[in-house]
Write a structure and sequence with these properties.
With 250 residues, the protein is α/β, with parallel strands linked by helices. Helices cover 31% and strands 27% of the residues. It has helices at 40-47, 79-82, 89-98, 109-121, 137-149, 167-183, 218-221, 224-231, and strands at 2-11, 14-24, 29-33, 55-60, 72-75, 155-159, 187-191, 204-209, 212-217, 235-239, 245-249. A hairpin with a 2-residue loop joins β8 (204-209) and β9 (212-217). The protein starts with a strand and ends with a strand. Bound molecules: adenosine-5'-triphosphate and magnesium ion. Magnesium ion binds next to α1.
Length: 250
């Protein structure tokens, strides 16, 4: 679903990372990891065509990135703070179909049915009539996912969808994304700081290490050496007697 050929990421005239050459197979559920400021959000911006690569070529499902690519759904970092407090959850999702001209354009019955379907799909139907400010972090994240999915994208990008969620909500959102990945047969790319809640569902990860972008399968990425180097602090990789894998600070 993604092909990067010798790509560099530039922000404000500064190269953030370079020499990104990798292929992410279609339909994958893949993580994006790297320390703060390493260029994870910038990577998503480039896929969305909102930020041009400094050099190299990016191909997203066969096309050069371009703004307004309807094949891509996007959940931005800090979604809740971007969403207006007083807007109703349901109307946020409708915005995913009508764009920012909401209120100016007429909405159709088919559009409202589509919104209802996706609200049910993500488990947000019960609180869809509430205002965004009245929802918990986990509920807001479900609304965010519904908004990104309502236009039937083939690729879903999520920037730190697990931030500010407790462990149970993290697990629920991961389970939801994994189900969407299977049932809708769409690719998912999500920025995360902790791989643990995702280890059982991820296929691979793009990792930003030493100013370069790489991609590898999850078995290769979950290595003490790589993660210790990546985060600049000792990380242990532990396998429980049951065979579950997890990472922790040493
Ligand atoms: N609009 C901008 N203009 C100039 N520099 C920017 C801009 N946005 C981000 N940067 C810089 O680019 C670098 C990468 O930022 P980016 O937001 O992609 O990192 P990140 O990996 O997503 O970080 P975080 O984990 O904190 O979200 C940072 O050094 C940041 O200061
Ligand atoms: Mg970021």
């Amino acid at each position: 679903m993604l092909d990067f050929d010798n790509v560099s990421a530039v922000r404000g005239g500064t190269t953030i990372w370079s020499e990104g050459t990798f292929h992410v197979p279609s339909g994958q559920m893949a993580g994006v990891i790297g320390p703060n400021g390493s260029g994870k959000t910038t990577l998503l911006m480039m896929i969305l065509g909102l930020c041009r690569p400094g050099s190299g070529t990016i191909t997203v499902m066969g096309q050069t990135p371009h703004r307004g690519d309807a094949r891509i759904g996007y959940v931005p970092q800090n979604y809740a703070s971007i969403a207006g407090d007083s807007i109703r959850a349901r109307d946020m999702v409708l915005l995913g179909l009508t764009g920012t001209n909401y209120g100016l354009r007429r909405t159709t019955k088919a559009q409202h049915e589509r919104v209802d379907q996706v609200l049910a799909e993500v488990g947000a139907a019960d609180f869809a009539a509430r205002r965004m400010s009245q929802l918990s972090g986990g509920q807001q994240q479900r609304v965010a996912i519904a908004q990104a999915l309502v236009s039937n994208p083939k690729l879903l990008l999520l920037d730190e969808p697990l931030a500010n969620l407790d462990v149970r909500n993290q697990q629920e959102i991961v389970a939801l994304l994994s189900r969407i990945n299977d049932e809708r047969d769409i690719g998912i790319l999500l920025v995360v700081h902790d791989l643990n809640p995702l280890l059982s569902v991820l296929d691979g990860a793009i990792y930003l290490l030493d100013g370069h972008a790489h991609y590898d399968s999850v078995n290769e990425v979950v290595s003490e050496e790589l993660l210790t180097h990546l985060y600049g602090t000792a990380i242990r990789v532990v396998r429980t007697p049951q065979g579950d894998l997890f990472t922790r600070s040493a």
